[in-house]
Amino acid sequence: MRIFALLLLTYATCLSADVDLVRVDKSERSMFLMQGKTVIKQYQVALGANPKGHKQQEGDEKTPEGLYTLDYTKEDSSFYRAMHISYPNQQDKNSARKLGVSPGGFIMIHGQKNLLGWLAPVTQQFNWTNGCIALTNAEMDEFLGLVKVGTPILIEW
User: Fold this and answer.
1) Which pLDDT score, from 0 to 100, does residue 152 have?
2) What pLDDT score does 119 carry?
3) Rounded Cα distance, 114 and 97, in Å
4) In 10 A of CB 48, how many CB atoms?
5) Quick check: 71 and 86 in contact, CB under 8 A?
6) What is the pLDDT of residue 120?
7) Which residues 6+ apart lie within 8 Å of 103 measured at CB?
C-alpha cells in the first residue's frame, strides 16, 4: 500500500510541476511537456495533413517548425478548446513575402472538431489538421491545466 501511495504522490507532483517547454517531434507525432530535461507528460498528436517540412504559406497543410510561444487560449473555437501558437513570426512573414504568398496563421493546439470528439480514437491515428496540433478533448483539458500562456513551444521534425 505504501508503494502505491508513493507512486500516486510522485505522479501528482509531476502533474502539478511547472511546464517550461512544450516540445513537438513531428516525425514521431509526439508532444512532450517538459520541466527542464524531465518529461512531465507525453501525448500522441495529429498534425497538418502534409506534416513534413516547415509551414511556408497558407493552405500548405504543414505544421510550422521552430521556436514559438503559446500566447493565448481560445474557448470559443470550432474545435474543443485551443491554445494559440505565435506563428507566423517575423522570419516566417519575411520568407512568405519573398515567395509572394501569405504565411497563414491561426495555428493552434486544439481538441477535436466540435460535436465530433467521439471520433478521436479514429482521427488521432492520422494527420488531419490544416497545420494545427490536435489532441483528444480529455487531453486538451489536461494540457490546458498544465501549460500556462507564455510557455515556449519548440516544434521539430
Assistant:
1) 98
2) 76
3) 34
4) 23
5) yes
6) 87
7) 55, 56, 57, 58, 87, 88, 92, 93, 95, 96
48 strand-pairing partners: 129
Q: Residue 31 carries which side chain, given as an amino acid letter? A: M
pLDDT at 4: 47
Whether the Cβ atoms of residue 62 and residue 130 lie closer than 8 Å to each other: no
Question: In angstroms, rounded to a whole number, what is the distance separating the alpha carbons of residues 10 and 85?
Answer: 30
Conformation bin of residue 123: beta by default, left when phi > 0, alpha when psi is -120 to 50: alpha
Strands (E), the chain: 21-25, 30-35, 38-44, 66-74, 82-85, 108-110, 133-134, 152-156
Contact 56, 96 (CB under 8 A): yes
In this prediction, residue 11 carries a pLDDT of 53
Task: Give me 23's grid cell.
Answer: 516540445
Q: How high is the mean pLDDT in each 10-residue block of the chain (157 residues)? A: 48 65 98 97 96 94 97 92 97 96 96 84 91 97 97 98
Rounded-to-integer distance, Cα 119 and Cα 107, Å: 22
Yes or no: say if 82 and 109 are a contact pair by the CB < 8 Å rule. yes
